[in-house]
Specification:
The chain is an alpha+beta fold and 168 residues long. It has 5 helices and 9 strands.
Length: 168
């Protein structure tokens, strides 16, 4: 498998996510790997291909709530607690958004949805487990492309907040 580690904003593909980070002056490291078109667990694939602990790789999940749409970001090793995310978003209930809606609102394809640079900015919550690490990995806006950055830099980039939104 082809694995490339970039050294900053100039390496790796240019996506809405990378452009947003560059505009905000946020440091990140792009990581490109060869995506297997048969893969369906995109986060586990990223962890395996990049050779990093799955606890440091975070998935971006869009939800529909009674207060509108929102984003939850949790480690690929964890499951999203929909009730906790709903509460963090000021709603009573949340359900996973339809994939077509998630793609349309984010401007990205499922498996490559980045929390950064979304077409429709949404209220975003990062699970507090991210704060255990100096850096975490999130999708860079394409399958086979992740961005490594500090958790609080991610929160700043998406104007989000940190709360416990994982199950267990």
């Amino acid at each position: 498998m082809v694995k490339k580690k970039g050294g900053g904003a100039g390496a790796g593909p240019t996506t809405a996510a990378t452009l947003g980070l560059v505009r905000a002056g946020i440091r990140f490291v792009p990581h490109v790997y060869e995506h297997d078109s048969a893969a369906t667990d995109f986060g586990a694939e990223a962890a395996r291909e990049l050779g990093v602990d799955a606890a440091r790789v975070f998935k971006t999940l869009m939800v529909a709530t009674d207060a509108g749409f929102g984003i939850g970001i949790v480690s690929v090793r964890d499951q999203l607690d929909l009730k906790a995310l709903a509460g963090a978003l000021g709603a009573k209930k949340a359900a996973m958004a339809d994939k077509a809606v998630a793609e349309r609102k984010s401007g990205y394809v499922v498996g490559g949805i980045s929390p950064i640079g979304q077409k429709t900015p949404l209220a975003t919550v990062l699970d507090d487990a991210a704060l255990e690490f100096a850096t975490i990995f999130v999708s860079g806006g394409r399958r086979g492309f992740d961005i490594e950055l500090a958790p609080l830099d991610l929160v700043a980039a998406v104007r989000g907040r940190v709360e416990r939104i994982r199950r267990g």
